[in-house]
Automatic annotation (TrEMBL), chain A:
Protein name (record): Dihydroxyacetone kinase subunit L
GO biological process: one example: glycerol catabolic process
Domain DhaL: 6-206
Listed PROSITE patterns: DHAL
Cross-referenced InterPro entries: DhaK_L_YcgS (IPR012737), DhaL_dom (IPR004007), DhaL_dom_sf (IPR036117), Dihydroxyacetone_Kinase (IPR050861)
Signal peptide start-end: none
Gene: dhaL
Source species: Jiangella aurantiaca
Coiled-coil region(s): none
Automatic annotation (TrEMBL), chain B:
Protein name according to UniProt: phosphoenolpyruvate--glycerone phosphotransferase
Keyword Protease assigned: no
Reactions listed under catalytic activity: dihydroxyacetone + phosphoenolpyruvate = dihydroxyacetone phosphate + pyruvate
Stored InterPro entries: DhaM, DhaM_N, PTS_EIIA_man-typ, PTS_EIIA_man-typ_sf
Superkingdom, taxonomy of origin: Bacteria
EC assignment: 2.7.1.121
Pfam families according to UniProt: EIIA-man
Ranges for domain PTS EIIA type-4: 2-132
Function according to Swiss-Prot or TrEMBL: Component of the dihydroxyacetone kinase complex, which is responsible for the phosphoenolpyruvate (PEP)-dependent phosphorylation of dihydroxyacetone. DhaM serves as the phosphoryl donor. Is phosphorylated by phosphoenolpyruvate in an EI- and HPr-dependent reaction, and a phosphorelay system on histidine residues finally leads to phosphoryl transfer to DhaL and dihydroxyacetone.
Subunit annotation: Homodimer. The dihydroxyacetone kinase complex is composed of a homodimer of DhaM, a homodimer of DhaK and the subunit DhaL.
Length: 209, 132
């Protein structure tokens, strides 16, 4: 299947449902090394993304992601707001005004999202952030797409890679955000941003399956 | 005309109090606007509050924005990207400065009528003002 307006909207809808279901888990992870508001912030941000989509009535998948990003930036409240908001907006802009895209274009959009997060936050792989889930996911998505695989297979590979990336954040010491003040005491916990990224990519795999 | 100043903190009270203190030291000629917390009064950051504060602080000479940390910085950077896409947006310069000391340094220099870059550099030079 191709990635069109309906699929893009379904993705954000599924992502919002996923963070709502796992709100307590995200908040628990954040309470361990952050300020304990990531679950509530993600629910508020993605709900605002959905509201903005409903209000604007976007007609391309790119516009859906831009609309979601604007809602997320406006309402999330924590650092996840500008990071995810910029990621979705940059991904949406990368899709241009196409009414439907295939795996290669969606992979390029996910890479644009990764670049946006790196530029804005100044973090890289190994800093114990959402990048540790997103970077391997983008690589996995693009590897499947480069072999001519469909979006469903690429998204499934990306979700698996994100979950592995999340697990790999446990032994890392945080070098960005509030958790970095904890130094070595940030070791031994999953990064909440990587956890929400894994949920969002699993949602993409589910709606494209 | 003077450069305006916007103070972005996770806390509405911190942004408001530092704005009040900087205004006391700078005098009435400088527009200093706090943008603290979320749009519903919680701890956090709101791009809409920062944008409104920037527009309110601008008198045509631009606005120096000083942030505390974390999402304050990321949200201010995001606003800067948004403004770059607008035609008649105010000139905005983010200052990489300590929050309280930078706010006072910027406000005092702005009161002398210096331009935006000079005001931002004044805030940033607060890093090197030793206390002991």
């Amino acid at each position: 299947m191709a990635f069109d307006t309906e699929t893009a909207t379904a993705w954000i809808t599924a992502a919002e449902a996923a963070v709502k279901t796992d709100e307590a888990r995200l908040t628990g992870l954040d309470a361990a090394i952050g300020d304990g508001d990531h679950g509530a912030n993600m629910v508020r941000g993605l709900a605002a993304g959905l509201t903005n989509i409903a209000e604007r009535g976007p007609t391309t998948p790119g516009d859906v992601l831009v609309a979601a990003g604007r809602g997320i930036v406006a309402k999330t409240g924590g650092a996840a707001g500008p990071l995810y908001g910029s990621a979705f907006r940059r991904a949406g802009k990368a899709l241009g005004d196409a009414s439907s895209v295939e795996a290669a274009e969606l992979g390029a959009a996910l890479e644009a999202a990764l670049t946006a997060i790196k530029e804005l936050g100044g973090a890289d792989e190994g800093d114990k952030t959402m990048i540790d889930a997103l970077a391997p996911a983008v690589a996995a998505f693009q590897a499947v797409a480069a072999d001519g695989g469909p979006i469903a297979a690429a998204a499934a590979a990306a979700a698996d890679a994100a979950e592995q990336g999340l697990a790999a954040t446990v032994p890392l010491q945080a070098r960005k955000g509030r958790a970095s003040y904890l130094g070595a005491r940030s070791i031994g916990h999953e990064d909440p941003g990587a956890a929400s990224t894994a949920l969002i990519l699993r949602a993409l795999a589910e709606v494209t399956a | 005309m003077t450069v305006g100043i916007v103070l972005v903190s996770h806390s509405p009270a911190v942004a408001g109090s530092v704005a009040e203190m900087a205004a006391e030291l700078a005098g009435p000629s400088v527009a200093i606007r706090p943008a603290g917390g979320t749009d519903d009064g919680r701890f956090g950051t709101s791009i809409e509050l920062i944008a409104a504060a920037v527009n309110s602080a601008d008198s045509g000479d631009g606005v120096c924005v000083i942030m505390d940390m974390g999402s304050s910085v990321l949200t201010a950077k995001t606003l800067l990207e948004d403004l770059a896409d607008e035609d008649d947006a105010p000139a905005v310069r983010l200052a990489d400065a300590p929050f309280t000391e930078g706010a006072v340094a910027a406000a005092v220099l702005a009161s002398t009528g210096q331009d935006l870059e000079a005001v931002a550099v004044s805030a940033e030079s607060a890093w090197s003002m030793r206390k002991l």
